[in-house]
Amino acid sequence: MIAVLAWAGVGVLGAVGALARFRVGVAVARRQQSDFPAGTFVVNISGAFALGLLTGLSLTSDLMLILGTGFLGGYTTFSTWMVESQRLGEDGAWPLLHLYLFGSMFAGLVAAGAGWLSGGLIA
């Protein structure tokens, strides 16, 4: 029964995470005047930090499944990152494309590491 509830939690929190991604992405995009996809960048970096934090807290496997896979899986987005990267390339915005691709990878790793260290300090 616990496994069924955990997977139901993944579905529900995945939907909540997707809604949160949309809201954060729109809020960030409204505040910027550039072609740089800042909304997705902020979502993915904050999601990387949050996943690192959950890992550092050493949560139980069910809680990690629900929060990490469910909420953060719905919140973060690899596919949008790739589509936006392709669009920057198609538009010939090479400096923005490289900043977006490599900046996302670097900032994501730093954010995940910072979250992990923070979680370890809290736990």
Give a concise summary.
By secondary structure, the protein is mainly alpha-helical. Helices cover 85% and strands 0% of the residues.
List the helices and strands and how they pair.
Layout (H helix, E strand, L loop, with lengths): L1 H29 L7 H19 L4 H15 L2 H13 L3 H29 L1
Helix pairs in contact: 1-2, 1-3, 2-3, 2-5, 4-5
How many E-type strands? 0
Contiguous low-pLDDT stretches (5 residues minimum) are none
Give the averaged pLDDT, no decimals. 96
Helix-strand string: HHHHH
Helix/sheet category: mainly alpha
C-alpha end-to-end distance: 28 Å
The dominant shape is globular
Query: Helical segment tally?
Result: 5
Number of domains: 1
Q: How much strand?
A: under 5%
Question: Major β-sheet, in short?
Answer: none
Describe the structure.
It is a single chain. The protein has helices at residues 2-30, 38-56, 61-75, 78-90, 94-122. The radius of gyration is 16 Å and the shape is globular. The chain has one domain. The relative contact order is 0.18. The chain has 123 residues and is mainly α. It has five helices and no strands.
Structure characteristics:
single chain; 123 residues; mainly alpha; 5 helices; 85% helix
